[in-house]
Amino acid sequence: MNNFEKYARAYFMPPVDCYDWVKKDYIDHPPTWCSVDLRDGNQALIEPMSLDEKVEFFQMLVDVGFKEIEVGFPAASETEYQFMRTLIERDMIPEDVTVQVLTQAREHIIKRTFEAVKGAPHAVIHVYNSTSVAQREQVFRKDREQVKQIAIDGAKLLKELAQETEGNFTFEYSPESFSGTEMEYAMEVCNAVLDIWQPTSENKAIINLPATVENAIPHVFASQVEYFHKFMKYRENTIISLHPHNDRGTGVATAELGILAGADRIEGTLFGNGERTGNVDIITLAMNMFSHGVDPGLDFSNMSEISEVYERLTRMQISPRQPYAGELVFTAFSGSHQDAIAKGMSWREDGHTQQWCVPYLPIDPKDVGRRYDSDVIRINSQSGKGGVNYILKQNFGISLPQKMREEVGYLVKDVSDKAHKELSPEWIYHIFEDHYINAKSLFTLDECHFKQEDGIVATATILHGGRQQVITGVGNGRLDAVSNAIKHYFDISYELSVYEEHSLTKGSSSKAVAYVGIICNKKKYWGVGIDPDIIKASIAALEVAVNKIEEIRNNEESKDERLLQITNYIYANYKTVTLDDLSEEFFLSKPYLSKYIKEKSGETFGDILKKVRMKKARAMLKSSNATVESIAESVGYQNVEHFNRIFKKMYDLTPVQFRNRK
Predict the structure, then answer these.
(1) 350-366: buried (b, 16+ CB within 10 Å) or exposed (e) per residue?
(2) Quick one: DSSP state of residue 433?
(3) What is the structure's pLDDT at 27?
(4) I need a surface site. Which of 59, 242, 254, 631 has the fewest CB within 10 A?
């Protein structure tokens, strides 16, 4: 890169300061759009379109809403000529659409062009010749006057032939390579052409200023345009058109600043197709205006369909990062971006604003036919909890509890990281389903029945170790009662820390989703249940969560059936049960019963009874405002002092201290 000194600025500034455009901060109305896809775009293709393909492309441009379409250079080839004739003879040009044809300022080419447009309802005849220093000196070897005379002669011939040819015609002139032309000279040539045409308010002329090779910073081009806007002859009867190319990668900026500087019209192509780095991208220009609340007058609401037709007919590919149209332009993989988008969408759904204002999304993807669930948030190893939750919610109606999202996010990210792949919404759901809904279990609860008796009494059938057994639990609610039955069966302790539920918002609205989070030995375990019955869904979620506890996973043997029946009876009748009651219930002598309980459980009848009563007391202290005296009585202690001593011995806290503990 040591050859930079051989380059010099090849543009020319106006002879006076032209910077009024800089005082404007937005475009308040769209320009007249002219698509040049079928000429500039087509000539840049490796394999130009056939006649049938050009017809299909033309129809797409009409459907998008273009009212001016450059259809070709009729003198360049037989296909170009026949295409123009086909549109006219098949009556394919709508009444409100003007076709445009291109011709060099050469006599035989101009004549052939008028033959092609004969009978057109309305056509723009676009004549051009190069005026830049480089073209004059190197290509034509002509001086200023000689080059200007080419333009004058061409303008005269257009006027003569238009009077002799059937049709309705507008004239357009381009000083090709405008931005490489001295501004005073470019103005001189354009004014000479306008003197020939004598435009009127009823029959305006078009002066097109092409950045044939983009060679200046956009603000320079804007000043050049403003110079013409202020000082060109017949300005009130002349349309200033721009034809920016994209050699510096700033074609869109050049066009936008040119409009601020006074331009009325833009010639460009879909997706910026054109020679070298292409023409200005009309889609980007129009959608930029749309994003500022200005109707561009073009319809790109079916962007995917437009993209498909464009790629099929041109054999060109649209970049995944192409503004507004690329596959990935609305996609967020980053965890922080996904979280912000998800929160922004939620904010909007909650009715905080009618105006579109969502982080990282300059427009609503739905306005160009894109979908939030498959286009906006996509999941790979860079994604986060917010994105995963968004995918599950939008696609499957699963709205994770806030405290669960981090674990699920890391789980999904880990799969993507190890697979080195993006995860589809279906794949994400399968990961979630396998881990939280259909996780491998060591026990299942096949049936639950409830009755009201000093709280809720749950009787459940548990399948564990290949055997079905009945377990009993008492709690403040149904889920609490089932949870206590499980704790009793496995002789474990855990805390039911999170419970949330909602109706399934996708698929079947009759189903409910329940989320259960439990804490055991400082570890959190999650389960999810889905069922039309919310109680069944809640129990299913609890079952999944408890199955993940390590102590249970290491305990594959079922409990002694008789001991389970005995402890179930104690659990169901903890308030008044005695050893005599057990002896009578199970037809066993008290000595044998005491010995049996001790051998099978490692605890005495009295130890088990105290444990059951204290668990019930703890639950009541947490969930009710009842006095300690009434709680003591409810769990079977008439003497509150005795109750207090047992409670403190077991938990190292008095009942009052336990209730007041944070």
Answers:
(1) eeeeeeeebeebbbebe
(2) I
(3) 96
(4) 59
